[in-house]
Design goal:
33% of the residues lie in helices and 20% in strands. It is of the alpha/beta class and 302 residues long. A hairpin with a 3-residue loop joins strand 8 and strand 9.
């Protein structure tokens, strides 16, 4: 086969998505394969991940020139050691790229999953080459990262763990073990709790946004907390571009304008507000694949 392909595995809090992506073309030649992230819950998580990668390669008949793995955790600057991975604790401490490379003889890049999503969204935007881009993705958890001039930023080399920002002295215990993390207020888990409390399918929960009801009040509080966390990140980082994405803001009826209005209320500093452009994520689940191709070129082709 003349074309060169990467294998990108975008591991999120709920699903693992794998796809081949054309190097320099961003072509996705076949159907994305999905698995439940819970498959990696056991002590044999590394062995299961190896098996899934091998099976996907064999099934497709394409041998990749490189592999990119986006991980929902903290990866060391060497893009190898997993320092923390709350959703897949069995991977913590592993030199993941090195250990996978023993079975898969090709370059392997391990990075923050949100870095892939942000790079993927940026890859098709024009006019933002000189920007400080902050990406925040609300899904099962809360992912965030920063790119400067479309390149990895050494200031945030461990990723931006915005979801574990301390937001309250009280509250639910977070998956990281601490109390009061932002993620316990604005994650998909909390949105599920709200929908369960009112016996409403989570897929339709935002259709009740305009109601005069306790459910609508809970939803408004949920969105206000999202805006507060965004305001904190924007005030500290002062990006010129904010990309907001993830499964929650893609849900039917999600009040995007209400989130922007609340964000403006919480932003006290006029400078970031005046300079800030807000863009909604456009690529959904494909963003991680496009971002994996971009980051692989940045790191390995040089």
């Amino acid at each position: 086969m003349d074309k060169k392909y990467l294998l990108v595995a975008d591991i999120g809090g709920t699903r693992i998505r794998m796809s081949f992506v054309g190097l320099h073309t961003s072509e996705i030649p076949n159907k994305t394969q999905e698995y439940w992230t819970s498959m990696l819950n056991g002590s044999d998580a590394l062995a299961v991940l190896k098996r899934l990668l091998h099976e996907y390669i064999e099934k497709s008949g394409i041998y990749p020139i490189g592999i990119v793995i986006g991980l929902p955790g903290v990866v060391a600057p060497d893009n190898d050691q997993v320092l923390m991975c709350n959703n897949i604790p069995a991977l913590t401490g592993h030199m993941l790229a090195s250990e996978l490379r023993g079975n898969l003889v090709c370059p392997i890049y391990i990075g923050h999953d949100t870095k892939l999503l942000l790079a993927g969204e940026l890859s098709t935007l024009s006019g933002y080459d000189d920007e400080i881009a902050l990406g925040v993705f609300f899904g099962t958890g809360v992912g965030a990262d920063v790119l400067m001039r479309n390149k990895e930023c050494s200031i945030f080399e461990y990723g931006l763990e915005l979801g574990h920002l301390p937001l309250s002295l009280n509250g639910e215990r977070c998956v990281c073990g601490k109390i009061g993390c932002a993620e316990t207020f604005i994650s998909g888990h909390n949105l599920q709790t709200i929908s369960d409390a009112f016996n409403i399918p989570i897929q339709t929960v935002f259709s009740h946004w305009e109601e005069d009801s306790m459910l609508a009040l809970r939803l408004k509080e949920f969105v206000d907390y999202q805006a507060m966390v965004l305001a904190i990140a924007v005030s500290i980082i002062q990006p010129t571009l904010l990309i907001i994405g993830g499964g929650i803001v893609s849900m039917d009826g999600y009040p995007k304008e209400a989130l922007k209005k609340s964000l403006n209320i919480h932003l006290l500093n006029h400078i970031p507000r005046r300079r800030l452009s807000i863009v909604w994520g456009q690529h959904g689940n494909k963003a991680g694949f496009y971002g994996g191709e971009y980051l692989f070129r940045e790191r390995f082709e040089k």
